[in-house]
Each structure stands twice: as structure tokens, then as C-alpha cells.
Amino acid sequence: MNSNPLAGAPHAHDGDSVSRLMGAVLLALAPATLYGIVLFGWPALNLLTVTVLACLLGEAGCLWLAGRSVRLGVLDGSALLTGVLLALSLPPWAPWWIGAIGGGFAIVVGKQVFGGTGQNVFNPAMLARVMLLVSFPVEMTTWLEPRPWLSGSAPSFLEGLQITFVRLAATDGVTGATILGHLRTELSLSQPIEQILPGHYQPALAAVGWTGGSLGETSAILILLGGLWLMWRRAITWQIPVTMLGTVLVLASSFYWVNPERYADPILHLVSGSLMLGAFFIATDPATSPITPWGQAAFGIGCGAFVYIIRTWGGYPEGVAFAVVLMNAATPLIDHYLRPRIYGRTWRGQPRPIRKKPHET
Amino acid sequence: MRRHDFRGGVHPPGQKHLSAERAIELLPMPPRLYLPLQQHAGGPALPIVTVGQRVGKGELLAQAQGAASAPLHAPTSGTIIAIGEFTAPHPSGLPLPTITLEADGAERWIEREPLPDPFSLSPAQVAAQVGAAGIVGMGGANFPSAVKLDKARQAGVHTLVINGAECEPYMSCDDRLMRERATDIVDGVAIMLHAVQAPRALIAIEDNKPEAIQAMRDACRSDTRIEVLNLPSRYPAGSAKQLIQWLTGLETPAGGRGTDTGLLVHNVGTAYAVHRALRDGQPLISRIVTVSGGAVAEPRNLEAPLGALAADLLAYCGGVGDDCVRLLMGGPMMGHPLPSAETPVIKGTNGILALTIAEVSEHTPSPCIRCGHCVEACPMGLLPVEMANSARREDWSGIQALGLSDCMACGSCAYRCPSHIALPQYFAYARDQLAEQRREEAKAQQIRQLIQQRQARLARAEQAKAEAAAQRQAAKKQRAIAAVEDDD
């Protein structure tokens, strides 16, 4: 009668599984991903495919070498998600080998070397992004203005293949900097902000995503919607996104209030670059973020602060990947120190003193 | 009164609709009853009957042994046909000493003396009667109720909390009891208030049982000392620690008792049993059991005699389908699998569940992704993921430092684990290993003590010998001196 006599309590489960969680995250990313493909055409789709395939191959190869179940490991969806997240953070017309090297690096060096799913210290996609940015700065900072699918300026399927797999042909004159990149260059020339931004940055367009940038990071609003859905579905908790965005908002507002000529306004920070994607989809990676609510809040604050510091004073216009990887390194420390108080014990772990409440209502 | 939230918890689907709308039915007396001598926390009861002896309904079969124990009474009239081993209601399926009673169908009561008014008795006498009736915690804790009542009175408890939360999914026996026998429960509560000399009682019921809440409110309207409160329907709201926290904001100190906060928690079933014992002179010989689950043809709540087999109850409910993959005693969160349906109902059995594959969701565990869902779910503020890691490394001092002793095995962590890791089993394993270590240490300590005692004994003997020799020597000298003096 008992199919498994060793089964212990509880005999009920909420029905979630790792693959379902990964599936939910992928679903939440779908609008931003589709938008990115529409915005940047065939080359974007090619790059996404190559990156994802590289991740899946890397995962399958490592699992096979380790003698573990390739089918279970690949089906849990975590490698697929790493591939999508990495592709979304790449310049949309980057050559195929950027995706291939990045995807392979993310899985093999970023994840499997540490022992596979759940064992990695750093977010694999962000580790790969950092590696690519440091190693191939030209390919990783070649941006272009939106050239939506079916519009006259979009490349055809064959042109798309050529862009991804042969070389970035005849794109001179269409490349443009991201808002953050443009801002950094001009600020270094001591231009005041009110002269830099007009013509290049419209808050509404930037929020919707009608701007140059990474494959899936342009539309802050679509990413936000996906992230809110994930929160509602309880795949992620509110702590990391809220504290990370909040910290950037507070820092940006303070500096903007002190000197609006030198510091960009908080809305620009929120709607541009990979901040939204980072807050909802990357910093919330379960394996590399703290396990306790307080720890997650501290982690989010750290990520937000690093993002703002790197964007404002660092050597790169964008800092989400660096910020997340830095805070990943601090996660074990955070988990060690920030723990919940145990019921019936003081914060120091001693039993709480016996205290009788006099009879009252 | 202010409410204070408790941490964590989960929302498993209640599944109460399967059985909650069926009135309690009396299970026809099975031909044989199997009564384990150990149905409670503490020492096993000592049988006072012999094989072949005829007994009346309510007759004492085995008496309490030691400070925390409970006697056992005959649930029906009949003949004792065996005192031996029988499968215990425990996942091991190991046998326990058990009295087997063959029913004669006459339901012949032993002679009962007319009962005094319980309020004319002293509080200690009331508790003694509760103990003599064999009443233990009916919510599943199985702790002898009389001991709890006495200790609470001595501790000066100010509030009696009656637990009608019934937060385990599927369970509806307390719900039905409150709906159908509210007046009797309230009478039992009044008697218990007298026994602990407390000025007030709170009856806490999860808000998914509006009918029970209404029935209890109506029943205690005339007694201003008793108040009925709604609890949130969130598991484990019915755990004594979380219940106390919700009601008062106080926490039972680690390693302490609920009474340290000035509150005493008893189950509604216990209050009802107290009423039956002190008003009708009926010891604890039957209880309400929820028989439910997707594999049961007609889920119901049955009033079953102790010692009835799970198979008897299931047969009365139309039998179990072939789709049953797990047979449980207790709820799905904390209940345990039964080795077979030939296992008896005991005093703490609140439910028998036959679950289908869709209800138990069996999965192969996958690697932990450190998502922290278990930390979020833990009502005790523990880190189940770290505790499981310590257990896997066999780091027993590490898992103790993480608060293993504070874990109450509620299962909330595993309920939410997306990797389907059997966290409570890691903790049970660690507890077992630590207990084994403690046994070994106690044994070593004992041996050390014996060796020391032996050495001390030998040293004493040696010293005595030396002293005797010295005395002899001295006496000899004395004699020699005396002889010399005599010569003079």
C-alpha cells in the first residue's frame, strides 16, 4: 500500500520545482527578449541562439564528464536561463564567437568548476559578461541605434547571418553609444549635463526601450513587468530588487540634488542600462545571493551602491555586472553574519529570559 | 487584545472539504481491539489483567507507571485474549507490548459510582481524576494531561489556551467535535480552569472553520471567562509555540515550557475528554478520527474505540482504492507512514489518510539551489539549508549550534523546497546520531565512575590494611614495654 515506506513527513508539497522556477524566470524574461529581437532583428536572434547553445553544450559536456545525469541537469533549465541572461546583456550585433565563448565560459568556469547547480559562488552570466568586457572591449561596446524588424533599415535574414557569423559589415554610421556611455564620454570632456542629454536621451523613450543598448536591457518597463510578476508568483522575494533599486534611487537623488550639472538625474539611472534586469533577474539568482531576508536586503543595498559608484566614478559606463559579482563574493560573509533570530532565543542565541505577563486582556 | 504575527509558515491546501461536512459517525465495534501499553509520552502502562479474563467496558486494563504515564481502560466489554507484541503505529513497523481484547458485543459497562460535582473537588483532585481516566494530549503530543494541569497550577498559569486550530490539512475531527459537541467542550474547559485555578480561557480556532467558531461562541456565551478567537489559516498556527506567540507576542524560551509564558495549551479534544471523564465517568476509550484522502471512497469523521485497526476504519469508509500510494497516521505535514493498515488507533491518532500519487507529489531530490525558501518558511527562524549541509557533513556540533534543538519538525521547509530535499529527515538523522553520542558518553562516564570507585575502594582497603598493621605494631610495642615494666 505504501509505495515508499521510507518516505518521511511532510507528505505534501507546494508543487514548485527547480525547473518550474527557472521556467517562470524565462517566461518573465520573454517580453523583454522578444522586444530585443524585434528591435535589433535577425542578428540578435542569431546571437541569442548561439549563446544558449553554447551554455547547453557546456552543461551537458561537464555533466557527462562528471558522470552525472545529463538529462536531469540540462532539463532543470538553469543552463538555458544562464544563456538567455548572458545574451540579453550582450551588444545585439556582436559576432557569434562572443556568444560562444561567453556561454561556454559562463557554464564551465562560472558554474561547473564549482560543482554545478547551486554550488557556484558567482553569477555565471555576469562572470562571463565581465570576462568578455575585459577581454574584448571593442566588440562588447559596439552599439547601434534600434533598427526594428520589418522596417527598411533592418537587415534581411542573409544579412543577419553575415553580421553574426562573418563580420559586422557596413555598419559604420549606424553605431551609437548607449545613454550611459555617451554621458560618460561627454562628462569627461567637462560638458554640463543639460548640454549632453538633449537629443540623446528622452526619459519616456528610454523607459520603453527605444534606444541603443544591450540585446535585452533597453526596455526597463518590460523588464519591470516581468520582475513584478515573478515577485507575485513568489519565485523571488522583494528584498533584493527593492533595496537595489532603492539604493540607486537614493544615491542618485542625493547627488543630483547637490549638483545637477555633474550628476545625472535618478530617473535616467533607473530606466537605462541593465539596472532593471540586474535588480529583478540577476542579483536575485538564488545560488549566489544570501538566503535570509536581512542578508538579501544587505546584498541589494551593496549591489545598488556599487552600481552607482561604478557608473558615476568608475572606469566603465555601466556597473551592474561588476557590482553583482563583487557582492556575490560577499554572500558567504553575509550569510554567516545576518541570520534570523531563533524563536525563544536572544539574538546571541541564548534562551530568552522567562517573563510572565500579568493577567490582562 | 493585540495579535502578534508568527514568523514563516506555509499555506498547504486545506482539503478539509473532503470530510468536514459529514457528521461524526460511530464506528461499529470491531471484533478485536489492539491496545498498545505505550500510547503516551513517558513510561509504558503496566498490565493488571490476565489472558482469559473477562472485562467490562471502562475497566482498568493497565495502570500508570512512574511520574509521567497514563493508565489504559477497556474500550468495550469482552475477553482478554492476548498480552503480547503487536505492530505499533510507528513507521518502523516494530512491535510493542499490546493487550488484545475480543469484544463480546454486549457493551457491558463496569459499575460506576455516582460522580461528585467536579467543582466541589479540590484542583489537585480534579487533575488526579483526569490522570486516572487515562487522558493524554489529544492533538498528537500524547503527553499525560494530569501532569500538565498540576505543573501549570504550580507555575501560576494565568490563561488556559484551548487549541482548536487544527492546522494540518485534511484533518476535520476537531472541527466536527466543536460543531457538534460545543457545550461539552466548554464544560470541559470550565473544569480545566478549576483544575489550574486560572482566571480565563481562550479558545483559538483557525478562521477556515466559521461554523465551529460560531458554535463555540454560542456555547460559551454565558461564561465570561472564556473567549473564542480567530487564528489565521496558516500552518503551523496550531503549534503551541506559534499559538502562544500569536496570542501574546511572547515566546516560549528555548528549552523551556509554554507555562514559562504564563499560558497553558490544551487541545479541544482533551477538553472534551475531560468533560466525559468528570461528568459521565467515562475514561478515555474512544476518540474522533478523520479518515480521508483521495484514495478513500467516502471520507468521514468516525468516533472509534481505541485499539480499532486502521483497516477497520478504512473499510467502514468504503475501503481504499488501488491508487493509494501512501497510508498515513496523522496529517500530511507531520504524520507518519503506517507499515500496514493492520495498525491500531491510539489516543493521539487524529487521522488516517490514504493519499494518491497526485496528493503526495513524489520527486527525486535535486541539488540545493540555495533559494532560501526554507529560511522564509521556517516558523522558528532557523536556516534549514545550513542545517542539512551540516548533517550531510556529519558536523554534529555545527548542526547543534544552528539550533537543531529548536526545530519542531513541522515540515514547512520541505513543503516549499523546490529541490524536494527531505530536510526533516536530515534533522531526524542528526538527532538520532546526537542521541547515540549522548548514550555513548553516558556509558563512558558510568564506566569511568565505576573505575574510580573501584580504585577508591582498593585504596581504602590498602589504607585499612596499613592502619591495621600499624596498630598491630603499636600494640606489640606496647606489650613489649609492658613486659619490660613488669620485669622491673
Description:
- The complex is a heterodimer of chains A (361) and B (488).
- Chain A is mainly α and 361 residues long.
- Chain A is built from 17 helices and no strands.
- The longest helix of chain A is centred in the first third of the chain and has 25 residues, at 42-66.
- Chain A is globular and about 65 Å long.
- With 488 residues, chain B is an alpha/beta fold.
- Chain B has 14 helices and 17 strands.
- Chain B starts with 24 loop residues before the first strand and ends with a helix.
- The mean pLDDT of chain B is 91.
- Classes of the chains: A mainly alpha (361), B alpha/beta (488).
- Chains A and B meet through helix 1 of A and helix 6, strand 15, strand 16, strand 17 and helix 9 of B.
Annotation keywords:
heterodimer, A: mainly alpha, 17 helices, B: alpha/beta, Rossmann fold, Fumarate Reductase Iron-sulfur Protein, Chain B, domain 2, 6-stranded mixed sheet, 4-stranded antiparallel sheet
Q: What structural class do you assign from the helix and strand content of chain A?
A: mainly alpha
- The CATH architecture name of the domain at 16-26 and 116-287 in chain B reads 3-Layer(aba) Sandwich
Strand content of chain B: 15-25%
Evaluate the radius of gyration of chain A: 22 Å
Largest sheet of chain A: none
- Average pLDDT value of chain A? 85
Mean pLDDT of chain B: 91
Short description:
Chain A is mostly helical and 361 residues long. Chain A has helices spanning 18-40, 42-66, 70-75, 78-88, 96-108, 124-135, 137-140, 157-165, 179-188, 193-196, 203-208, 220-232, 239-258, 266-271, 275-282, 293-313, 320-337.
